[in-house]
Design a protein that fits this description.
Structural class: alpha+beta
Order of helices and strands: HHHEEEEEEEH
Largest sheet: 5 strands, mixed
Strand content: 5-15%
Strand order of the largest sheet: 5-3-4-6-7
Length: about 325
């Protein structure tokens, strides 16, 4: 009995060859269609995810400014004055040379331990950036999440920065600078060297006056330290505060930059141009968030640069 017999195949006829070729061709087309559809879905999902992430980061950035505003208000409630934009550098005139307004509100943003450490650290050294063993301040190398915009990944860690004396230190950065008015030498805004601004001094109205705005740290991380900084001309400008019509101080690093004055949004697309350090801008692209003296935060488009000058001063005659 034959249980099975091998099936013998002879040569394919022309019809079989044609059908086989058509089937293979159809399979390739189907595969390409599937690959295209998968690629399209991935592209759409990636774009949507990117947009959602950027929206979340932008919202978080705005919320950080609101919390900073509450910290500033807490300081004002306690002492009836906003903190100095930058504490003067002479030890004879101040206890905390070059300390930033951000460090002065630590107690009002749930950073009590760092706030309490400041007097003791300055007792050990009047230089907040000293590298001398046993005299190093606790604050400079800390990362304060509230002071950084999530859209800038550099704000999640401290960085090794070379100081003016050639020595290196770990320093934390900030995305937010106080508004010193039109220019750091004018002192017509809320925060500047030795400023002592009260809410009652803001004659233009608190809802018409910006006091803090977005500007990421400099590309080389030399400007934008949150704790303290000498800034340009030892005024603290560029580190703690900025004017809306600043000029180039002419330092070696800025010789390629125009003299200015600079205004909001002049270099919105040049993400790696160090000249933009003289104006407010943000990683969000089309504008930036600004904190007003009444505690509100508003988004201002790049093309509204001419409005910024009137909003930056506290006694410019722009009433509510």
């Amino acid at each position: 009995m034959v249980l099975f017999s091998p099936i013998r195949h002879g040569p394919l006829d022309s019809g079989q060859v044609t059908r086989l070729a058509n089937r293979i061709g159809s399979s390739l087309v189907e595969l390409l269609v599937v690959i295209f559809v998968i690629g399209l879905i991935y592209s759409l999902v990636f774009s949507a995810t990117h947009l959602i992430r950027e929206k979340v980061q932008k919202t978080s950035c705005l919320n950080h400014l609101k919390q900073i505003g509450m910290g500033l208000q807490g300081h004002h409630d306690s002492l009836n004055v906003f903190p100095q934009g930058t504490v003067p550098g002479s030890r004879e005139n101040s206890l905390f040379p070059y300390l930033s307004w951000r460090a002065l509100i630590l107690a009002h943003i749930d950073q009590d331990n760092l706030a309490k450490a400041i007097p003791g650290d300055y007792g050990l050294s009047a230089d907040p950036f000293t590298t001398e063993i046993g005299k190093v301040h606790q604050g400079p190398g800390k990362v304060i999440t509230l002071f950084g915009c999530p859209s800038d990944s550099r704000l999640t860690t401290s960085w090794v920065v070379t100081l003016g004396d050639g020595k290196q230190r770990n320093l934390g950065m900030s995305s937010y600078l106080g508004i010193n008015g039109t220019h750091h030498l004018n002192g017509d805004g809320t925060f500047f060297l030795g400023s002592k601004t009260r809410l009652s001094d803001i004659l233009d109205g608190t809802s018409n006056t910006i006091i803090v705005g977005e500007r990421p740290p400099s590309i080389n991380l030399v400007y934008g330290w949150w704790y303290a900084g000498t800034g340009w001309d030892f005024s603290g400008a560029g580190d703690a505060h900025l004017g809306v019509a600043e000029t180039n101080p002419g330092y070696q690093y800025y010789l390629e930059c125009p003299f200015g004055p600079y205004s909001w949004g002049e270099t919105p697309s040049k993400t790696k141009v160090h000249c933009r350090e003289f104006s407010f801008w943000s990683p969000h692209g089309s504008g930036a968030n600004f904190l007003f003296a009444d505690g509100s935060v508003k988004w201002i488009q790049n093309d509204n640069r001419f409005i910024l000058k009137s909003l930056a001063t506290i006694q410019g005659g722009d009433l509510e």
